Amino acid sequence: VALLVLMPVLIRPAVLEPMLKSMIQEQTGYQPSYGQFRFTLFPLPTLRFDAFTLKDARTPEAVYLLRADQASFRVSIVSLLFGKVQLAHAALKGADVHTHWRTGDGAFVKIVSLKRMSLDLWNVGSNRLVRFKLRGQFLSDAENVTAAGTLRADFANFQPAELDFRMRLDIQSLELKRLA
Q1: Concatenated DSSP letters for 74-118?
Q2: What is d(CA 173, CA 28) in angstroms, rounded to the nearest whole number?
Q3: Residue 101 · residue 84 · CB < 8 Å
Q4: What SS3 state is found at 164?
Q5: Mean pLDDT over all residues of the chain?
Q6: Could you give the CA distance from residue 156 to residue 159 in angstroms, rounded to a whole number?
Q7: What b/e sequence results for 123-137 when a residue is b if at least 16 CB atoms lie within 10 Å of its CB, and e otherwise?
Q8: What is the biggest distance separating any 2 CA atoms in the chain, rounded to whole angstroms?
Q9: How confident is the model at residue 60 (pLDDT cuts 50, 70, 90)?
Q10: By the 8 A CB rule, do 64 and 47 touch?
Q11: Is the pLDDT of residue 145 over 90?
């Protein structure tokens, strides 16, 4: 009971926010930015960011990798008490993801986007088996993509060729004129 009463004193948002921002940059290699930051302790410790964006820190003018209306991260209380952030769950709502489509030799072809996506990730961490579920819009104005599965990656040294994942993917109608 004493620990529950002391948790708001031991876990301060002013300390937690820069720690999480640093962890996101270290784990993904991308610079996070956001509007409002909120931390709630009950019923589960959760960090919420409004207008969350990830961009390549080396090229500030680059297209963002991810922009979400809201990003929330549920964290482990035990890890917080030891000054570390360990994620149990991450969720994105209203997210747009942009990635570069490249040829086998690495030449740029086109930016491919998944829009208005909702994404849930469980057991998030480098070299851990992460479960995921997503829904979104691809080459359509309507939700037409759903996916679920698992992935494992070294987020700190991410190489797409080393991504280990299993996925069930369902894509409904596409508007091919959007590829042009």
Answers
A1: EE-HHHHHTT---EEEEEEEEEEEEEEEE-TT--EEEEEEEEEEE
A2: 32
A3: no
A4: strand
A5: 81
A6: 9
A7: ebeeeeebebebbbb
A8: 62
A9: low
A10: no
A11: yes
> What tokens does 50 get?
């409004």
Nearest Cα to Cα of residue 114 among 42, 35, 40, 171: 171
Per-residue pLDDT reduced to its tens digit, 110-122 = 778 889 999 999 9
Amino acid at 54: L
Residue type, 165: F
- Both tokens of 77, joined, read 């209380």
CA distances from 139 to 64, 84, 101, 113, 144 (A): 18, 40, 14, 8, 9
What per-residue confidence (pLDDT) applies to 157? 73
Contact status, residue 48 vs residue 37, Cβ threshold 8 Å? yes
% of the chain surpassing 90 pLDDT: 27
Q: Which two tokens stand for residue 139?
A: 């080459």
Mean pLDDT, rounded, for 94-102: 85
Give, as one character, the DSSP assignment of residue 61.
T
Structure token pair of residue 11: 């876990």
**CA–CA distance from 38 to each of 16, 47, 50, 150 (Å)?**
10, 6, 9, 29
